[in-house]
Design a protein that fits this description.
Number of domains: 3
Structural class: mainly alpha
Shape: extended
Helix content: 25-40%
Number of helices: 5
Strand content: 5-15%
Strand order of the largest sheet: 1-2
Radius of gyration: 21 Å
């Protein structure tokens, strides 16, 4: 079986706002210039070669492989935090999709949506080319808008009542 590498298509402006509480030295850039460029076939092995700069690199300056990151950094961090059991005698952690590093993406989207960020903005930050994809994936975690709607209508009526006094 032949392995296939594929860069994920992203919107040109998929850079998310950087939290102000984190030190500036941790801030990623939207257009990395100090990271290496890599050339890979696009979408399929015989696809056209496309060169992109990496946002994150391993200690040797190469690709961060998801599987290596999961085993070497992510799972040990989850175990230290007490979120998953320690590695077994063989050094392996329990395999569970919900504990993979992709969960970070879902956590980030969930936090933004719970805080009331728009689907359009979350879609842009995640690099989705279509907000409908973001809505399909995350609609189940959208906070209920009933209380927000109630407050919005109350606010309008209070403003009108205040003007008529």
């Amino acid at each position: 079986m032949k392995g296939v590498l594929q860069l994920q298509e992203r919107r040109p402006s998929s850079c998310a706002p950087y939290p102000s509480r984190l030190p500036p030295r941790c801030a990623p850039t939207c257009a990395p210039t100090c990271t290496p460029a890599i050339t890979l076939p696009w979408k399929k092995p015989e696809g056209p070669k496309v060169t992109k700069r990496l946002y994150f690199t391993n200690t040797a300056g190469g690709i961060v492989w998801r599987s290596n990151f999961n085993v070497q950094e992510w799972k040990p961090a989850l175990a230290v935090a007490g979120l998953i059991p320690d590695a077994g005698p063989d050094g392996n952690y329990e395999s569970a999709r919900e504990h993979g590093m992709h969960a970070l993406r879902h956590f980030y989207a969930s936090v933004l949506l719970d805080a009331g960020e728009s689907i359009q903005a979350v879609s842009q930050y995640l690099g989705h080319t279509d907000p409908a994809l973001t809505l399909r994936v995350y609609a189940h975690i959208m906070p209920s808008s009933q209380e927000r709607t109630r407050k919005a209508v109350d606010h309008v009526f209070l403003k009108v009542a205040d003007r008529n006094r």
